[in-house]
Amino acid sequence: MSARQESTAPGGVRLTSAQGRWVLATAVLGSGMAMLDSTVVNVALPRIGEDLNADLAVLQWTVTAYMLTLSSLILLGGALGDRFGRRRVFVIGVVWFAAASLLCGLAPHAGVLIAARALQGVGGALLTPGSLALIQAVFHPDDRARAVGAWSGLGGVAAAVGPFIGGWLVDGAGWRWVFFLNVPLAVVCVAVALRHVPETRERDARERRGFDVPGAVLGALALAGVTYALIAAPGGGASPGVILPAVIGVLLGVLFLRVERRSPDPMLPPAIFGIRLFSAVNVVTVCVYAAFGGFFFLVVLQLQVVVGYSALQAGTALLPTTVLMLLLSARSGALGQRIGPRIPLTVGPLLCAAGMLLMTRAGRGASYPTDVLPALVVLGAGMVTLVAPLTSTVLASVDVDRAGLASGINNAAARAASLMAVAALPLLAGFGPEAYRSADEFGAAFRRAMPLCAGILVVGGLIAWLTVRTPALRAAEPAPAERCHPECVYHCGVSAPPLDPGEARALEAERPPAGGEGPPGGSNSR
Q: Pfam families, per this entry (predicted)?
């Protein structure tokens, strides 16, 4: 089948064919570009602040502006691909992402950088769900598991080399090249996609009634209002400029929930939260990824500002967590299937909490082997224990037809939690606007922040112990390799759970039952 021909039939491309290798390369390039960006930007934050003469709030917005649009629109992005063509929307996302990256690199001041990062998140919302959707739609069913495994393995290389590339660029050519790097990658990705990837879309796409654009807009504005208030609060106190955005954000959040209840095609169907296991695991997800988001935002600054590492050293220092997830996530997923998710979802957050508390030893003059590495090893062990069973439990908590929707909601919840943590944690821990310019001030605030992150993880583990009663994931469920390969969890497990590559993606073809408890055999009967 020619890449220029549109196919609505099930995928038939074999992984061993020349076209199959090109399709896999396209998916890896696209997702790898987004993974590299998320890895290297945090490493560049101190240099960005120094070059733009920016305070801590600007560094927060550099991270949160991207996560704001990405988390708000990622469900809509998956639905657009299903409706208008997965290759088309994927290519648009790659081009959009690259153009916004170029604008980030050229930004003359902080305002332009923050706006460009928000635009970059829009491209990411189109690109991220499209990467796995291409694999699911194009490859023959017999080859999909191997294709996802290859995608995750090659993506793991991007995650592993990201700190090296980011640190090397920041210390050498400068932080702007962290963003410029995306442009040549995008050019190659688009050229290969247009030449070798066939177009696919849902068979009933033309019969769909519409998209939940009002829900997406309200969700984004609600998050933006609350985020603005949290970031502005350290400098503005209880001023109208802080209180008013917070109130507006909360009101818009309430309006968002009302719109979702009444929408014929809701982005976030309220009925799915009537499934108790699904709701419980999403609460655990919010706790876990809020702690991860706050930790990884602050720890790179701590290593550079307080410990005295270069950007390359700081990025490389975090490599043990990636290596542990690369080596052990598949085994963790298999263990979760055998013993059930309750123990991993309880023990994993507790190990992560211990790792974050150990990181408080990484102060001025800290030794990497004795102060930094043990904390990262314990944290990595907790992530290995936690991430794969968390993803599998989300997928197993709903019927197969709603696996894509459940995975998308879980992914968006994780990203929104990270966003709110990056906005709120500096306020709660007492970071001043200029804290990252003073090693003593930043180090003291970091030591206050880590117990807060650890406490959120302990709450998540406790919720898992009290609410997750499933003895084991059902044997009747498709193997994780067919729905979310266990090895793929390390590919994006630090920033958010992996998206399910199944056919049901952001919007489900059939609405949940009115009772909200799911079909017979759903989570409540397990």
A: MFS_1 (PF07690)
